[in-house]
Design goal:
Number of strands: 20
Radius of gyration: 22 Å
Distance between the termini: 29 Å
CATH architecture: 3-Layer(aba) Sandwich
Shape: globular
Largest sheet: 9 strands, antiparallel
Helix content: 10-25%
Number of helices: 6
Strand content: 25-35%
Structural class: alpha+beta
CATH superfamily: Mog1/PsbP, alpha/beta/alpha sandwich
Length: about 350
């Protein structure tokens, strides 16, 4: 069990740490946490051909703009559904599937002359709807009060794409917060997908502490990309210092100012999951001149490594307004930093057993 401060007790103890998992990684979090996912409204709109912005938010509507779920295609994952919500999404998924079938029959082939083939796909033993047009498939599943939709992006033939579809159907299972499977696969909000550790992923999850709603925590686990894929003459945009600056620049665009709380050097070396990285600690001044704090850690991966060495990013950000509105005292600066660094130090590869 981690402790924040061996010398003094924080004003509000954060000693009951729990493990959770993101992608192929795990981390420790203080006490219980809310998890950001997609709302019923967002998922239903996608079935209707609405906005492609897959907004991720907490159940009360607070947006978690950095979250993203990509695993062999784009994923949408719901919070717990009522029976009416589930019926709405099931109807929407069936209607979308029927529109796809009619489109295939009407068009016959692509503008390039490729014949279109529609097939209804079985999802047993699960409840859901799935279909494919040639190699591109769509699958919607309802498990343990949560909804998951995957839009497979596999190109080529259905023979090549079908194993990816089968991995989802055969490997998916419900997962509660704090359940860390000891098996190869990826962790998502509310779900785990068992696999052979080969499928690529870009999974980033945002948490909000229940005892301290001023604190949001975001961890991203993604396959490393090669330098050739991101080549620019003027700068190495995979450099951790560049990426740290880029992260805080995006935060600064909606705030009055963002300034390092560490004197030179403003970057400090650290490790996440055994990988060398950098950490930064900043003061965030809002438009109303109130102050909050932010911590960011990045451990770049290696696309050329024989072993999976992913890109890892973590932020911990305090927004005191979210605590004060609930009558809770925000976490003080020093305790915030100790907590953030403890979370970063806890990030590691989730242990697995062989298939």
């Amino acid at each position: 069990m981690l402790t924040l401060n061996a010398c003094s007790e924080p004003r509000t103890p954060l000693s009951d740490w729990k493990s959770d998992c993101v992608g192929r990684m795990q981390l420790d979090l203080p006490e219980n946490a809310d998890i950001a996912a997609n709302s019923v409204k967002t998922i239903a709109a996608l079935y209707q051909g609405g906005s492609q912005y897959r907004k991720v938010e907490f159940a009360d509507g607070q947006v978690a703009g950095w979250s993203e779920f990509v695993y062999q295609g784009s994923l949408q994952i719901s919070h717990a559904l009522t029976s009416d919500d589930a019926q709405l999404l099931m109807s929407s998924a069936k209607e979308e599937s029927e529109r796809s079938r009619k489109y295939t029959v009407k068009q016959g082939k692509t503008p390039e002359g490729e014949f279109l083939e529609y097939e209804f796909l079985k999802v047993l033993p699960h409840v859901g709807v799935a279909n494919r047009i040639n190699a591109r498939y769509s699958v919607s599943l309802f498990l343990d009060s949560h909804w998951l939709n995957q839009e497979g992006f596999k190109r080529g033939t259905w023979v090549e794409a079908k194993p990816h579809f089968n991995t989802l159907i055969e490997g998916i299972s419900p997962r509660r917060f704090g359940d860390v499977p000891v098996a190869p696969g990826v962790c998502l909000p509310y779900f785990f997908i068992r696999d052979d550790n080969q499928p690529t992923r870009h999974i980033s999850v945002t948490y909000r502490l229940k005892a301290h709603p001023d604190i949001t925590i975001w961890l991203e686990d993604a396959n490393a990309v090669g330098h050739a894929d991101w080549h620019r003459k003027d700068v190495n945009i995979l450099d951790p210092e560049y990426r740290s600056n880029e992260f805080w620049t995006q935060i600064r665009q909606r705030e009055q100012s963002v300034k390092s709380l560490w004197s030179l050097p403003t970057y400090r070396h650290n490790h996440m999951a055994g990988q060398k990285g950098l950490e930064t600690f900043v003061s965030i001044i809002h438009k109303d001149c109130s102050e909050d704090f932010g911590y960011y850690s990045i451990a770049p991966g290696d696309a050329q490594s024989k072993d999976d060495k992913p890109d890892l990013q973590l932020y911990v950000i305090r927004d005191a307004r979210n605590a004060k509105s609930r009558g809770i005292e925000p976490l003080p600066k020093d305790e915030f930093l100790k907590m953030a660094q403890a979370i970063a130090a806890s990030v590691k590869r989730r242990p697995t057993t062989p298939n």
